[in-house]
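User: Could you go from structure to sequence for me? I need the amino acid at each position, not a summary. Structure tokens:
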């Protein structure tokens, strides 16, 4: 699924992948998780636009018996210190054509699936978005 999302999320080139040889199978909402990955990969693509030596890597690793981490790492511009506290706020964007909804939606989906999303950035050198997720909580029917 991560490979398909990586393909769908890229506009300007390939995504390098460092995939763990074996990950636990999770019970989760594939389409919602795919939406998150496409949003993060699209943002990473924008972060490296116009930087010839920059790239994007998708990394997977197990973090527990039924948990995994997915990291989207770019070697682009990074996020300015002033912007960092607001990146998950709805309608916050630094792009002229952006809606400011991608990261807000991503955070909402990941948390709804029982996971967490975090960011580490190096202004001028790149950003890592890390999702940690396990089996999604059961939803009440009705």
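Assistant: Here is the amino acid at each position, in order:
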């Amino acid at each position: 699924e991560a490979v398909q999302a990586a393909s769908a999320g890229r506009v300007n080139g390939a995504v390098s992948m460092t995939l763990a040889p074996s990950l636990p199978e999770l019970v989760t909402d594939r389409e919602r998780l795919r939406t998150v990955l496409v949003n993060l990969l699209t943002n990473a693509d924008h972060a490296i636009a116009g930087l010839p030596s920059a790239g994007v890597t998708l990394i997977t690793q197990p973090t527990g018996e039924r948990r995994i981490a997915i990291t989207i790492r770019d070697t682009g511009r990074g996020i300015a210190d002033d912007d960092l506290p607001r990146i998950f706020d709805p309608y916050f964007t630094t792009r002229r054509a952006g809606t400011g909804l991608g990261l807000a939606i991503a955070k909402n989906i990941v948390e709804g699936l029982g996971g967490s999303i975090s960011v580490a950035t190096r202004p001028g050198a790149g950003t890592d978005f890390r999702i940690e997720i396990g089996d999604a909580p059961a939803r009440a029917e009705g």
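One structural detail worth keeping in mind: Helices lie at 2-9, 30-48, 102-112.
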